[in-house]
Structure prediction request, 176 residues.
Amino acid sequence: MSSEAALAATEDLAMDEDEFWSLLDDVPALDDDPDLEGLTDALAQLPAGSAGAFQARLTLALHALDGPVHRAWLTEHDPDQLGFVSDDVFLSARCATVLLGRETWQVAVRDEVLPWGDDPEYLGMAESLLEVAETAARQRGEMDAYRQTVDAIEISYEMGSNTALWTGGATLDNDD
Prediction:
C-alpha cells in the first residue's frame, strides 16, 4: 500500500480532529506530570469505538512529526544534554508536542520543530499518552474492537515510519 493510501486508510479510522484536540485541550497545563487520567476517563465516556478512533488520530499526529528535520531540531536543543536523541526521547518529545495542543502541533509540523516545553522530565511522562486509548477501551470492556481498529491502522508513529519525510538522503541512526 502506498504511503498516501495508508494515510487515507488511517484517516478513515480516525476520530474527528476537532473532537481529538478538544479532548487534549482538557489536559491540565504542563506542571510536573500531565494528568492523563482525566483524558482517559473522558475518552471512556465517549461512544463505542472512540478509543480506537482516538488512537488512529494520535498515530496520524505523531506520524506527521516523524522526520529527520524534527529529530535534528530536537538533537540541537538536546533536552537530556547527552549529545544525541534516542528513538524513545524522539517519540516522547513528539507526544509532549501533541499534548501541548493543536496550535503547538500545527506550528511543529509547519516549522519542523518540537516545542515540548522546557522540562526534560516531562518528555518521559508524555509518552504515557500512548496508553490512554487502550486504557479507555479496557475501562469500557471494548478491547476486541479496540485491537481490531488498531490492527487496521496502516501507518506507524515509530521513528522512520514517515517515509515521505525520511527519504531524500536522510539516514536513520539507531541510538537505542
User: Anything to note?
Assistant: Residues 3-159 form one domain. The chain has one domain: 3-159. Confidence is low (pLDDT under 50) at residues 169-176. Residues 86 and 118 are 18 Å apart (CA to CA).
